[in-house]
Amino acid sequence: MLGLLANQSLGQQLRDPKVNDKRPEVPLYKNPKIKESDVDWKATRLEYVVGGGASNFLGDLGGEDQPGQPFVFDLEPTMTRYAVSGGVRYFLREYQAIRGYTTYARVRGDDALTNYPNRRYRNLNFKSPIIEVAGIYELHILKPDYIHYMGANTTRVFDGNRFGAYISGGVGAFFFNPKGRLESQYFALQPLRTEGQGFPDGPDPYRRLSVSLPLGGGVYMLLNKNFTVGLDFGYRWTITDYIDDASTFFYDNQAIEARDGKLAAYFANPSVALSDVPDDFWYTENQPRGGQNNNDTYMFLQLTLSKSFTPSITNRKFKQSKKMKAPSYNKKKLKLFKRERKTRTYNNKRIKKSKRKFKAPKLDFGKKRKKKKGSISF
After folding, report:
1. How far is the CA of 68 from the CAs of 144, 228, 256, 352, in angstroms?
2. Would you state the pLDDT for residue 227?
3. Cα–Cα distance for residue pair 204/242, rounded to 1 Å
4. What is residue 6's predicted lDDT score, i.e. its pLDDT?
5. Where are the beta strands (DSSP E) in the chain?
6. For the whole model, what pTM was predicted?
7. How far is it, in rounded angstroms, from Cα 169 to Cα 96?
């Protein structure tokens, strides 16, 4: 019985090696250590941004079946056109950035699309390009979270949240050039002075270069390889009411025709082309041609794509770090260094050759005297 119990205890010890293992356990990490840093945002502070989407115009032409309303309450969806943009975003602080942006867009308006009588029988229409250069400040409310591994500072990983959001505001300058349609042709309206610009009792001529005040915001999502896709909305207030060439009052149409011709007279009052105008008095001298109390505005809604040219961000656990480059030396110094190394080692052929020809030194010093014949030596 004693032998059987001894065999059982020995077998249990063999099966469970921890019985006699008194060494301390070494902690093993399944994943590399993670290093969090407060300045990681500086690695991706410079981004290049492109965008494309829709544009629309809010002014005196077209709109809803009612008198003109401010903001989006007078929006005509069928007049939506396109907009393309490109620029650079630079983060000043972790949640604050500035963006330089250039945008090209098209806007349109047409009284034929509304059923409100005073606007419909006015019969004005226009189209115009918008070329805008703007500086925009962004305040990021939410940013994606990312971290990187200890010992691999070029590798970053997502840590839960990939989404971001911001609000923006700034100032810009833009160029516009309204053109009106007559049959199938379009004519620039600013040179025609359709509201009597230039007459002593008329308004001053307007410029086709003006100032915009962008205000908006957006959301975005971080992708692999430092790509970010987002949706950006921008509303532009302006300091001009002439994007659609309509702002103040009708001027004497005969005076415009006498000075600038029949084409200018037609675009000053296109209602003359309609035969069913309810009341011609609506479009006579000193009657409202536009709403001068509210300036024109326009807006963009764009899908954006940005790229940060920095070490890539990945969602992998880790990746192999790049090999370190060998240090560069001056070629002349490197040759001298190699020569010195050769002279100090016995691998040199000259030293080997001298070793083979080694001879024992002569131990007799001075010249030997020759003995003369017949001399007597003592």
Report:
1. 42, 39, 27, 104
2. 87
3. 12
4. 53
5. 34-35, 46-58, 81-93, 96-110, 125-142, 146-149, 152-158, 163-176, 179-182, 185-188, 209-222, 227-238, 297-307
6. 0.70
7. 12
Question: What's the domain count of the chain?
Answer: 1
344 within a domain of the structure (yes/no): no
Q: Write 250-255 long-range contacts (CB < 8 A, 24+).
A: 250/195, 250/283, 250/284, 250/285, 250/286, 250/287, 250/288, 250/289, 251/195, 251/196, 251/199, 251/202, 251/285, 252/196, 252/285, 253/285, 255/196, 255/199
Beta-ladder partners of 134: 101, 172
Return the CATH number at 178.
2.40.160.20
In this prediction, residue 33 carries a pLDDT of: 47
* Distance, CA of 237 to CA of 216 (rounded, Å): 11
Q: What span, in angstroms and rounded, lies between the C-alpha atoms of 105 and 54? A: 8
pLDDT given for residue 104 in this prediction: 98
Kindly give the parts of the chain with pLDDT less than 50.
Answer: 2, 4-5, 14, 19, 26, 28-30, 32-35, 149-155, 314-322, 377-378
Q: Dihedral (C-alpha) 242, 100, 304, 52: value to the nearest 10 degrees? A: 40
Q: How many CA atoms lie within 13 A of 75 on its CB side?
A: 12
Which of 311, 305, 176 has its CA nearest to residue 244?
Answer: 176
pLDDT score, position 76: 87
CA 53, CA 47: separation in Å to the nearest integer?
A: 20
The whole domain housing 256 covers 34-307
Confirm whether 174 is domain-assigned: yes
- Residue 115 resides in a domain: yes
